[in-house]
Design goal:
The complex is a heterotrimer of chains A (290), B (285) and C (363). Chain B is an all-alpha fold. Chain B is 73% helix and 0% strand. The chains are: A mainly alpha (290), B mainly alpha (285), C alpha+beta (363).
């Protein structure tokens, strides 16, 4: 007679999960699930009229387009700057400096987004460091208007997102045997050929995952665009905040939030998909980076 | 400490051979240059902020014309700042204690037990890390409005526990993975039930990881804006929210000083975490 | 306990058709065996044969997918590991790194809420038993491998288990220390009269220590018996090769005037009792230990005629390789120096063996 695993025994082993399950079901899963139905609740009962009005209004499309544009540019810059840093951290840095290099990469993650935005205001502001330097060097006659522009938002976002990109790529690169690169060189490949034919293809899952992660986080980040873009340059996240906390049009805010949630979930799904790629050793997924 | 400590110090002093054969000498220098530039880019804003916090003027300019502690004095004599500092501290401390207790238990089961749906549950528990914080904030605001918690400390606390619990689960989970499961089996073999095994064997062995997880949770709560900004009660804001509100008007040296105090706390905690478990182990699983 | 209290025939552990699968792999595939009180049973097999899994199922760390495990007459299916009256010595010792030697050994007693005075006495007694006096305050990281091993042993034995499970407990020790610990383990087991189930892949260890050996491969127990029985009369090719060296020769079993004979390479050789004689037409495999092969240079029609191929001097032994008429290689281990010295490659020799020394292998 086959023995079955006693369900009571299973419960005895799994009880420590219960508090976390209760907490996250009640105060995380439930509110997220409530978001969607609330966006359909109008004064005249259930209807998708808000979606229709949002998606039919070019005002919102401009904001959505700007958000995608800013997130896309930031992602691209993070990739170009982050890949060399990841390579440096995994392959090149000396063991003595390695920890400090890691700390430099990670340190910004431990400071509030507000504080990081504040630093860029001090640097890019009308009487900020950059303008003072340009004036002192007689390169410009009057202070440039850098702050409260799309460029300022991009600089702020790249600054915040680089660590995510670096850590995601580094995690994948660490599992790539460096003797593969040496083998390629040994077989006559130049450094550039080695990079494009061996290193990059093997780390592509990390690159793709990092790009999706940074894109999702950039698209939904609120503090940086709000503080570095000024009130004029709205993005999806600042629009949501405005509807909830300034205009008090919750149904509209919920609708936009639902749109953002769906986009974010799609991007996160792609991110996880990339990290479970066949080249990537071990199980990673959401756990790979901060 | 014990084996865990030895294992970690072993990891830290692990000799690493610099591999450069793959990309050639020129490639190495190009990469180094880019990497160092990025490091400068990452450090610059923090340095600028700290330097300007010592400027005397009430309006922030850089470079400062004089050295002064006026900003810090102004901060510590401002009731609003002090109140928010205290609130942030209370909030971060309570959130990290609660998240560590709950997360410790969950991480243990996720690492040690095999059961149907474990991967899903693990992804679910870690997902607040990558889901847009603003959406978590908005969703909780709606729920708390229904429950009447929207402007209460408990609401804020619950929101923060949700936001920081993944950090605990990840850090403590990594610590669990460093200990030999046979040691736990030995405890069971010698008559210890699950709770006794956790308390008498597992906890003492991973106390470094548990402490690091708690500190992580503390920092992430300490710096949180995007969730707090939706749930704070009027007149009772956390430090980052207060700074946010100031920034919409003007940046005084007191505001910069407040920001720098936030940085100092974070840097101290990062160094402390690095001492306990090593910073590169803390950031990945 | 007085020796007369023991009933040696009493079964302490009974496994019945136990199965365990890990995903698609059948780690343990229908294993049955019993261990009697005071008996030292070894599960011997290569890594991955399922022997450790059996131990872990008895201890309660794994649940069998099918079959029964009884410990002291009680089906332990729903008994969690911490309630079972067995203790284990782990391969890596699994000492608690944060507890000192005393607290490690006292761990099990304290779980049973035994009075602290008695805990102290018993821990001291058992540390003395494993010759570890005066090390109570040390931490595991401050002990040598051999000392850690002794702590692990004391930590398990102090609970006076009905059964001690040992998972390659000497695997991490160097050869010399391993030999010494083998002797001590055996003495300890005799003294305490506790049943041991011992897992190892080391055939010498199994032969030295065990009352009975169960040879395992691919999740099956292939043969159970006293060490000598298994060594002398292997029943399968795997057992013949895994335990020591064997000449495995193909041939046929033929019946000649009511007695069975082994027909190998055209010669009829003596064969002991064949329990299940195979069908005559089918070929079978015979196993003969190299040291059981007798060699002489004198012609004898009852023996197998071979040509010497090579000879090796190994210090403590002399090895001769010979080929019979069917070009089958026969290894002979001998200690006759005079004979050895006069052999030259290509020379004709005659080999035979005692009828009991030739086993018929199944499969």
């Amino acid at each position: 007679m086959p023995t079955r695993r006693n369900p009571l025994r299973q419960l005895r082993e799994l009880w420590p999960l219960i508090p976390a399950c209760i907490l996250l079901l009640l105060f995380y899963a439930l509110p997220l699930l409530l978001l969607l139905p609330n966006s359909f609740a109008t004064k005249n009962g259930w209807s998708g009229s808000i979606y229709v009005s949002v998606l039919g209004d070019s005002y919102y499309w401009i904001i959505i387009g700007r958000s995608f544009w800013i997130a896309g540019i930031s992602t691209l810059l993070c990739l170009v700057l982050g890949y060399p840093v990841a390579y440096y951290l995994v392959r090149l840095v000396s063991s003595r400096f390695r920890r400090y290099a890691y700390m430099i990469v990670i340190a910004p993650l431990f400071t509030s987004a507000v504080i990081r935005a504040m630093a860029w205001v001090v640097i890019l502001g009308r009487r900020g460091m950059l303008n003072e330097a340009l004036l002192a060097a007689d390169l410009v006659d009057s202070p440039l208007r850098i702050l409260y522009s799309e460029s300022a938002i991009v600089v702020g976002l790249v600054y915040i997102m680089i660590p995510f990109m670096v850590l995601t790529i580094a995690a994948v690169l660490e599992n790539v045997d460096s003797t593969l690169e040496e083998a390629a060189r040994d077989l006559g490949a130049s450094p550039l050929v080695t990079f494009f034919k061996v290193t990059l293809p093997l780390t592509l899952p990390g690159v793709v995952a990092g790009a999706f992660l940074v894109f999702a986080l950039s698209l939904s980040s609120y503090v940086t665009p709000a503080l570095l873009g000024g009130g004029r340059l709205k993005v999806i996240a600042t629009l949501i905040f405005e509807q909830f906390m300034r205009v008090f049009n919750w149904p509209l805010g919920t609708t936009i939030a639902s749109v953002l949630l769906i986009i974010a979930l799609l991007v996160i799904w792609a991110y996880n998909k990339a990290l479970t790629h066949r080249f990537v050793a071990g199980r990673r997924g959401a756990a790979a980076t901060l | 400490m014990t084996q865990t400590a030895t294992a970690i110090s072993g990891l830290r002093s692990r000799p690493r051979r610099v591999r450069r054969a793959g990309i050639g000498r020129l490639g190495v220098w190009v990469l180094r240059l880019v990497a160092w530039s990025v490091f400068a880019f990452l450090l610059l804003p923090l340095v600028v902020l700290i330097v300007s916090s010592f400027a005397g003027q009430s309006y922030v300019v850089f470079p400062p014309r004089a050295f002064s502690l006026e900003g810090y004095r102004a901060f510590f004599t401002d009731a609003v700042f002090l109140h928010s500092l205290l609130l942030s501290f209370e909030l971060a401390a309570s959130a990290s204690v609660i998240a560590t207790a709950i997360g410790f238990l969950a991480a243990y089961v996720l690492v040690r037990r095999r059961f149907y749906g474990r991967d899903f549950l693990s992804a679910f528990f870690l997902s607040p890390l990558i889901l847009p914080q603003i959406i978590i904030g908005v969703a909780l605001l709606q729920l708390f409005t229904i429950l009447g918690l929207a402007t209460s400390f408990s609401g804020l606390l619950i929101a923060h526990v949700v936001a920081v619990i993944p950090y605990v689960i990840r850090t403590v989970g990594a610590a669990f993975q460093t200990i030999d499961p046979r040691v736990e089996e030995a405890a069971a073999d010698l008559g210890a039930g699950q709770l006794q095994t956790l308390a008498l064997v597992v906890l003492p062995m991973v106390r470094g990881g548990a402490l690091a997880g708690a500190l992580f949770a503390f920092i992430m709560s300490w710096i949180n804006v995007e969730v707090s900004i939706f749930i704070s009660a009027t007149g009772s804001y956390t430090l980052p929210v207060v700074l946010y509100n100031y920034m919409e008007y003007s940046i005084t040296t007191a505001v910069v000083a407040a920001a720098c105090i936030g940085i100092y706390v974070a840097v101290a905690l990062v160094l402390f975490i690095d001492r306990i478990i090593g910073i590169d182990t803390a950031t990945k699983l | 306990m007085r020796p007369s209290d023991f009933r040696m025939d009493e079964v302490i552990v009974r496994l019945e058709r136990v199965e365990k699968r890990f995903d698609a792999i059948r780690a343990v595939d229908g294993v049955s065996f019993t261990v009697r009180r005071g008996e030292f049973v070894t599960l011997l097999g290569p890594s991955g044969c399922g022997k450790s899994t059996i131990l872990r199922m008895i201890a309660g760390f794994e649940d069998p997918d099918a079959g029964h495990i009884e410990i002291d007459g009680i089906d332990v299916r729903d008994q969690p590991a911490h309630h079972r009256p067995v203790n284990m010595v782990f391969q890596s010792y699994a000492l608690f790194p944060h507890l000192n030697v005393f607290d490690n050994v006292a761990f099990g007693l304290r779980r049973k809420k035994i009075a602290s005075a008695e805990v102290e006495q018993r821990v001291k007694d058992y540390l003395h038993l494993v010759s570890l006096d005066n090390l109570d305050e040390r931490y595991p990281s401050q002990l040598s491998g051999g000392q850690q091993q002794r702590v692990a042993l004391a930590r398990a034995l102090v609970n006076r288990p009905k059964l001690l499970l040992l998972d390659e407990p000497l695997g991490a020790l160097d050869l010399k220390l391993r030999r010494r610990m083998q002797v001590e383990l055996k003495q300890l087991q005799r003294e305490l009269q506790i049943s041991f189930v011992y897992v190892t892949h080391d055939q010498d260890e199994a032969l030295t220590l065990s009352d009975r050996i169960a040879v395992m491969n691919n999740g099956h127990i292939l043969q159970v018996g006293r060490g000598r029985e298994i060594y002398d009369r292997p029943q399968s090719l795997f057992v013949a090769n895994f335990l020591g060296e064997a000449n495995v020769l193909s041939g046929n079993v033929v019946s000649e005037s009511g007695r069975f004979k082994a027909e190998i390479g055209g010669c009829l050789m003596p064969l002991g009792n064949v329990i299940n004689p195979p069908v005559e037409s089918g070929g079978v495999l015979f196993a003969i230990r190299p040291e059981h092969v007798r060699l002489s240079t004198e012609a004898d029609v009852r023996k197998m005629r071979c040509l010497v191929e090579d000879k090796l001097f190994l210090g403590n032994g002399l090895v001769v390789y010979a080929r019979n008429a069917a070009r089958q290689l026969i290894t002979v281990r001998n200690s006759d120096r005079a004979l050895f010295d006069q052999l030259t490659p290509g020379q004709t020799v005659y080999v035979d063996w005692h009828s009991d020394d030739c086993s018929v292998l199944s499969e």
